[in-house]
Every structure is written in structure tokens, then in C-alpha cells.
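Entry 14. Structure prediction run on the chain below.
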Amino acid sequence: MKKIIPILVLLVSINSFAQRGGKMNERIKAQKTAFITEKLDLSSEEAEKFWPIYNAFEEKREKIKSEDLRAIKMQIRRNPDMSESEADKLLEKILKAEKELHTAKLKLVNDLKSVISSIKIIKLRAAEDEFNRILLEKLREMRQKRANRN
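Output returned:
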């Protein structure tokens, strides 16, 4: 019985951490949606067509990054002194993942051309970059505040 309690505490704390992370991701996604909608000045009709296309792209990109590229990075960290043949295999995997990302970006642009103007597609890239910059700044500020409290 004494061994079960620490395991339960660990599981509960992991679960609450995952929920907080999930809520944080949801908040970031909602803020990104509002930010991009404002920056692109999307009409309600445009937004209705734009977001399903963009969200499908984001899912594809996240899948490639989390499944393919993360696994490759883990392999590199585990085996920094790999052989040439192992490096060749990893390089092929990296190029394949990068090609999939590129293909997804091309599909996004082609799909968006029927929904929004080319100017707004260009503004989308700028808005994504600006949002990411602001997000990184806020994360740095949060880390500094945390470090100053400790």
C-alpha cells in the first residue's frame, strides 16, 4: 500500500501538468487565431474558408515535426558518434521530412489562393513571424520572472 501512494501522486501530478500544458497550447492557439485574423483583416466569409485550410496545414506540420523530426533529433543525441552509413540514413530521413514540410507549404499556398488574395498570403507569413517573435519574448519574460522569484 505504501508503494501505491507515491505512484498515484506521480500519476496525478503528471496528469495535471499535461492538462496545464494542453490549456496553455489552447490559449496560444486562440491568441494566434485572433492575431492572424486581425493582421490579415479577414472577413467572416474569408475566415470561414481560411481556417480549415490553415488548421489542416498546422496539423500536418506539427505531425511532421513531432513524429519525424523529433525522432531524428533523439537519434542524433543518443548516438553522436554514429557511423557514416547511419548518418546517411538519418540524412535521408531529414530530407524526406523537410520535403514533406515543403510540400505541405506549397499545398497551403495553392489552397489559400482560392480563398484570399496573394497579398494576404504574403501578410500571413509576416503575421506568423511576428506572432512567434512576440510569443518568444513573453516566454523569456516569464522565465526571467520565475528566475527572479527563486
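The mean pLDDT is 86.
Filed with the rest of this week's runs.
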